[in-house]
Amino acid sequence: MKKALLLALALATAGSASAAGKLEIFSWWSGDEGPALDALVKLYNQKYPGVKVDNATVSGGAGTNAKAVLKTRMLGGTPPDSFQVHAGQELIGTWVVANRMEDLSSLFKSEGWAKVVPADVIKLISSKGGIWSVPVDIHRSNVMWYNPATLKKYGVTAPKTWPEFLSTCTALKAKGMQAPLVVGESWTQQHLWENVMVGTLGAQGWENLWNGKLKFTDPRVVGAFTTFGKVMDCANKDASGLSWQQASDRITDGTSAFNVMGDWAAGYFTTTKKLAPGTGFGWTTAPGTSKVFVMLADSFGLPKGAKNRAETLNWLKVLGSKQGQDTFNPLKGSIAVRTDSDLSKYSVYSKSAATDWKHSKIVGSMYHGAVAPESFTSAFGALIDQFVASKDSKGATAAAQQLADKAGIGK
Known about the structure:
The protein is an alpha/beta fold. It has two domains: 2-139 and 297-364, Periplasmic binding protein-like II (D-Maltodextrin-Binding Protein, domain 2), CATH 3.40.190.10; 140-294 and 366-407, D-Maltodextrin-Binding Protein, domain 2 (3-Layer(aba) Sandwich). The protein has 17 helices and 13 strands. The strands form four sheets. Strands 2-1-3-12-6 form a five-stranded mixed sheet, sandwiched between helices. A three-stranded mixed sheet has the order 7-11-13, with helices on both faces. A three-stranded antiparallel sheet has the order 9-8-10. Helix 2 (34-47) links the parallel strand 1 and strand 2.
């Protein structure tokens, strides 16, 4: 009770626009992603002009380098005021279970966020009666990209199920396309794996994998692994040497027909490759996932012991606000978590994603930190690498269940 009163008092004090002080935020957004964060900092400074913001960025490794520095600081008792983390188990399974984060339920209540943030998302960022971070964006994992001209040339359409995908793959190979599916380095294959799982097991089956109701050794999961092996047989043999951008290039140049990748690819196609949505590149949901939105989100929380607590609460308010999300996401290439965002500010692709966001079943991504703790995901890559080489479904699912047990999944 005392903690709740203290947080309520801090929230009331944090509402003052005359707040003065410092704020240290910690992220891995740099390069192409830097301007979106800069726009958020600028908005924060407009609202709280007396606060000096220290934007501590540690770039590289899709957050791996930043997480290593963060770990040192968190364990050393000198946490940043707020830090970027993938919403869900990446935070909960690491820092919430270690009792290093403050519960933000009071903030969600005072800001009315439960009315505009989908219940499925609240569920993902909640644990043990608390809400632990404020998501600032939504990316979609389950998108299949293609070049409309390539599909027309080969006389095929985008497949709607994984069995149909395999038939289309056979047809394309018969017409001379060596690798109908393009994949890149190991993480892109894990990304593909989760989409085959969701498209085969369904949204509820996928959720049951992570709450312990469905074991990896279940025949349905073994069968889904077998399907994933067949899908990988449609792919290029030089995958390990390609970045996700290089893999995407094979869609635009017509070498391959399909690529399953997150919707940061839309930003790459439009901004870097200067392609028009719908003609230069096309998209659909990954096979079997038409009514599902596999999401990942970047979020920020409030570490216990943060030096500038009132300023941090104000930062979180900006992140969760409609203005904050509509300032950040059009630059980032993502969509707002909020269902009341101003879609006139967004791209053609993002508008379609935002519509689906409102009307789909929302589930979390495994590879991108939403549904599994880092102790699982960090070891899972080697398992997938081994499976792609061996195609041993029973061996892979037995090993995956051992990882899940060790990580405490379903406990």
